[in-house]
Design goal:
heterodimer; A: about 240 residues; alpha/beta; six-stranded mixed β-sheet; four-stranded antiparallel β-sheet; 9 helices; 10 strands; B: about 220 residues; mainly alpha; 8 helices; about 0% strand
Chain lengths: ~240, ~220
């Protein structure tokens, strides 16, 4: 369970998170929607401690993420993250990309890590690209590689930061299909997304961010089809 | 008595070329290790460390190498610790090239997109694991050609060690000694130039082959 309690965060004078409260249960899929700059992506980075917070608390499975006593490197193994920008390591093959963290972090023998990598690459549909370098892959394939790489660490949670936003429209589907499959497998996910049909179909709940606060949160279908707040209606009206 | 170019002279120049090569190798290796550490430290968050090392690099890059040779050598002598010309020369060359290498290393580290490190840390890697497995391999490949250029420059800079009167002489000083005797400056300098060219070309060739082995497949798709 991820418990986010009154989280505040500023970049310089700009307060990007102004008291966020959200609880995500195991097995749940929560989509974060809202205009860019509303703080959705920043919250993801705060959840796995890639960004510090100014006030409040984030607790993952009973561990206070931002406490000084917390080993954040160890904590991040439970929290896989995939970004909008392509982030496959360009100097490594697909297999090496996926095997790197299991080898270095979990001290897995290279052969075992290689086999694990192959399993996860096959799972995301890249079984025929195992020896390819990222430069030889399409954007959609690179994002699926990044997902496989996160899954190889057997995370309990997956944080997805607009993973389809940098993709050409025709490549979005293959990445969303991969995420659908993970949702079906029961993976707990927090996804920042602009893909409303995807959110409606896959998410249990949707949270609408506006200027650093969660303006409205509710069951996915209800919130997207019948938003209660005027601002939510306005936002959805613009992008649907 | 007629002075002519003899086999002995050719041997003298070849030995000079060998010394030039060894000077380049030793100073290049020491200077690159120092430069890597300095360049890395210059990407640290500590403003004092960054400022001090930045000043160090500015000073080293702004004073002509020949002055640095003389100053360092004289300083050691005055301090009661005279060094032999080669030792003094190698130290000066290493420190000198380390300033330039640090700039290249810093640029290399900074060229790695921040999302690469975020991805690595997000997988649970420590700072050290991210740095050694992701940042360094990606960044250093980017600046490898610039580093090779520095090493080629260093090879030619080794000739300035002549001001310290190091014997046996390296390639350029050896050539000048022969010129003084046989008064054939054009011929000898042409020969010296050929020696330098061959040595540089060998380095360029190996560097090019090494670079080609990864360049096509690793290049970041943009």
């Amino acid at each position: 369970m991820i418990e986010i309690d009154n989280v505040h965060k500023s970049f310089g004078a700009l307060e990007v998170l102004k008291g966020i409260d959200l609880v995500v249960d195991k097995g749940e899929v929560v989509c974060l929607i809202g205009a860019s700059g509303s703080g959705k992506s920043t919250l993801l980075l705060c959840i796995n401690a890639l960004e510090p917070i100014a006030r409040g608390r984030i607790v993952v499975d009973g561990i206070d993420v931002h406490s000084k006593q917390t080993n954040q490197d160890k904590l991040r193994r439970k929290l896989g993250i995939v970004f909008q920008q392509f982030n496959a390591f360009p100097h490594l093959t697909a297999r090496q990309n996926v095997a790197l963290a299991p080898r270095k972090v979990l001290k897995m023998p290279p052969k075992e890590a290689g086999l694990l990598a192959e399993q996860h690459l096959e799972k995301v549909g890249l079984g025929d690209k195992i020896e390819c370098y990222p430069a030889q892959l399409s954007g959609g394939q690179q994002q699926r590689l990044a997902i496989a790489r996160a899954l190889a660490m057997s995370p309990d949670y997956l944080l997805l930061d607009e993973v389809t936003s940098a993709l050409d429209p025709e490549l979005v589907g293959e990445v969303l299909d991969t995420l659908r499959m993970l949702a079906k497998d029961g993976m707990t996910m927090i996804a920042v997304t602009h893909e409303m049909p995807f959110a409606r179909e896959v998410a249990d709940r949707v949270a609408f961010f506006h200027q650093g606060v969660i303006h409205e949160v509710g069951a996915a279908g209800a919130l997207i089809d019948h938003p209660k707040e005027a601002r939510t209606r306005e936002f959805l009206g613009k992008i649907l | 008595m007629i002075y002519t170019f003899t086999a002995n002279d050719l041997w003298f120049m070849a030995r000079g070329a060998g010394i030039t090569f060894v000077l380049t190798l030793v100073a290049g290796a020491l200077g690159s290790v120092m430069g890597f550490l300095i360049g890395w430290a210059r990407t640290s968050r500590n403003p004092l460390l960054r400022g001090l090392l930045g000043a160090y690099v500015d000073i080293i890059r702004s004073i002509p190498l020949i002055i640095q040779f003389v100053l360092f050598n004289s300083f050691m002598a005055i301090a009661g610790n005279p060094l032999d010309p080669f030792t003094s020369g190698i130290i000066t060359l290493s420190v000198y090239i380390s300033g330039y290498v640090s700039e290249v290393v810093k640029a290399g580290i900074e060229s790695v997109p921040a999302v690469m490190s975020k991805a690595a840390r997000g997988l649970g890697m420590t700072y050290a694991q991210d740095f050694s497995n992701v940042v360094v391999p990606i960044g250093m490949r980017t600046v490898f050609p610039a580093w090779v250029g520095l090493m080629l420059g260093l090879m030619k800079d080794t000739s300035l060690i002549a001001v310290l009167g190091a014997t046996p002489p390296e390639l350029l000083r050896a050539s000048q000694i022969i010129i003084n005797r046989i008064q054939e400056p054009l011929l000898i300098l042409l020969g010296a130039g050929a020696f330098y060219f061959v040595m540089c070309y060998v380095i360029t060739l190996f560097a090019g082959r090494y670079e080609k082995s990864w360049r096509q497949k690793h290049e970041v798709a943009r």
